[in-house]
Amino acid sequence: xxxxxxxxxxxxxxxxxxxxxxxxxxxxxxxxxxxxxxxxxxxxxxxxxxxxxxxxxxxxxxxxxxxxxxxxxxxxxxxxxxxxxxxxxxxxxxxxxxxxxxxxxxxxxxxx
Length: 112
Known about the structure:
Order of helices and strands: HHH
Strand content: under 5%
Number of domains: 2
Oligomer: single chain
Number of helices: 3
Distance between the termini: 51 Å
């Protein structure tokens, strides 16, 4: 926020109002979803769509989880200079990163 020219004395208020806005947006979304659920729960189409929707939600959650976990791992393509602590950069190609780690693990196991 300092980079966009926000005065230093307004930083706490800006952060507070931003976070309050995010929380209110989440509450609004949950309220809308609950209202939709209450209105559609007795519909036959809702019952048919429920299981595929749950699989889609679970798949998206798994994809995001794998992405966040692999982003916290070190990038195997970068080697830090000797005597330094390796950095853990965010990785834009998370699925590629997981595949690369698996290949390296297999190579290590076969070398033993």
